[in-house]
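Ticket #4471: structure export looks truncated?
Reporter: QA, pipeline team
Priority: medium

Steps to reproduce: submit the single chain below to the structure queue and open the exported record.
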Amino acid sequence: MRYQISGKHIDIGTALQTHVQDELGAVISKYAERPTDANVIFSKSAHEFVCEAIVHLSTGLTASAKAHATEIYSAFDACAGKMEKQLRRYKRRLKDHHRERAEPVELMQASSYILASDHEDEDSEPENLQPIIVAEMETSIPSLSVGEAVMHMELAGAPVLVFRNEGKDGLNVVYRRDDGNIGWIDPQN
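Actual output as written to the record:
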């Protein structure tokens, strides 16, 4: 597995890098088959250290976790604990997901845009209703079942996931609701 361990405006020593590789490697190998790479970023927010880990798995899934603590090692340990909890929760489904599929997840290419937000006075009317495009990127929309889409969304820690429904061959959306449940939008095609 390939590791990329970095710090934003802080120095990451070799002892911490070794600790991260050993601990994260142990957690991931216990629950996931053939992880491809891990990206761990340390930063400082006021008096706390922040650790964010993103792990790409060979099944096409991405797992992520984030934690805060006053000590940098504690921040990583809490982050690794969250990652382990996510992977343990989905262990059976992670392994079944790879076995049930005869072919890899099919991806459809799409354009993704970042739009400028209006930071004007909320009471004033905007001059133009056309949004200003700040950036344009390519993204992939996976072809998944609804259960797989929920698993992808939760492992990535994302609030929403757009996917192509394998059963109906149309675009669908799953999202985290304010009440903690999962919402699923399935438009009639």
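Status: closed, not a bug. The export was complete when the record was re-opened. Leaving a note from the reviewer for reference: The beta strands are 2-7, 35-45, 48-57, 62-69, 107-115, 133-144, 160-165, 171-176, 182-185.
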